[in-house]
Amino acid sequence: MGCTRSVEMTRHVNVASYVAQQRDQAGKESKLIKDFSVFDFHHIPEEPVVRDECKTLIDEMVRFEVSGIPTHHAVIGSRGSGKTLTVKYLQRVVPEHAELDVVYANCRHHSTTYKILARLVGVQPRGASLAELFERFCSMHPKKTVVVLDEIDLMSPKDRRREILYLLSRSAQPYMVVMLSNSPQLLKELDAATRSSLQPVPLHFRNYNAGQIQEILRDRAQRGLHAWEEGTLSEIAALTTRLTNSDARLAIKTLQYTIMGRGKDLRSCFERARRDLVIDVISDLSDSTLMILWATATSKVSFAKKIYERYCRFSRQHREKPFSYGYFYSNLSHLQSIGLIALVCTKQGRTYANRVVLTFDAATATKICALRFEQ
Ligand SMILES: Nc1ncnc2c1ncn2[C@@H]1O[C@H](COP(=O)(O)OP(=O)(O)OP(=O)(O)O)[C@@H](O)[C@H]1O
Ligand SMILES: [Mg+2]
Fold first, then answer.
1. pLDDT at residue number 26
2. CATH architecture of 285-373
3. In this predicted structure, what is the pLDDT of residue 177?
4. N- to C-terminal Cα distance for the chain?
5. Is the beta carbon of 87 within 6 A of some atom in ligand 1?
6. What Rg value do the Cα atoms of the chain yield, rounded?
7. Pairing mode, strands 73-77 and 175-181
8. Domain limits of the chain?
């Protein structure tokens, strides 16, 4: 009994001193940081770093306002290239200066036409018919309206034709669609009828260069920190552009870890940020895409055809019907566009074959996959 109590006491004392130590550390950090929200990925700066492609979108919106004739756009760019931030910023600013409404829905969270419309109309996604919901949407937005559909490639396979695009492009009312995606395959994957009535113009967001990333970091530092070194910002920007697809999130998280890093060197803060973001991205994948990643991570051979066979076996073991090779391959392209794999074309004898290379530690992928599938 005495022994148990002494263990409890020890635990108690340790926890108490640990709390004190952590509070002390948090106190030191809060002296360095004046506004923690600059590290929040949903934070929209008052004046974000404006990229050239943003001006193109503004030009197109203004043209739509003046002429009433919409040109629909597919904004395509890799992870962290500022797509969501740009449209959210325009949603805030444009209606203040132009006779336009801008509405936004994220297809990751509202994955069918029905759910998107329910969200835009502000009702629960049940009860009304699709036609009724669209009618309500039209009566709520009688004036020229830009409809932003973020992460459009994540719409559910149940709505493979992406009905919403068809409805908006065929409407008698003036609607301009701006869809965002990090998949370069997006336009190819659109249903032919939708593509022909929508005629979307692709707008590519180039990867940020080191100067732009540094500018984004400086802006956060100016607003959120009491003190910082310009050299640290330029080093983070250089690592982000040299070793990844210039994901601004990675740069911001590295800056956060550097400030809160308790003496850790910049390179290890960068690696930790990279690991944490990879875990977030993998955890967000759908079951089928994760299964493809699993087959890739555990395959001894890296040829796409062999990985496909492995994926088909996994799917059947889990009582899932595997995708066709074509659909499997477009999932690989998606995994490439979010930076988890690289597709490399190599010569094999007289022909060429595609190899799939993981861009991060295979053990991370297998751990997350095991958690999801091996229950
Ligand atoms: N031009 C910019 N100015 C200031 N902050 C930026 C800029 N571009 C990106 N950021 C910041 O970087 C992070 C990632 O940007 P954003 O979410 O817009 O990327 P994305 O292209 O939508 O990525 P994903 O494809 O993963 O959705 C956000 O925290 C955003 O605030
Ligand atoms: Mg986004």
1. 72
2. Orthogonal Bundle (1.10)
3. 98
4. 39
5. no
6. 24
7. parallel
8. 2-25+39-43+209-282, 52-205, 285-373
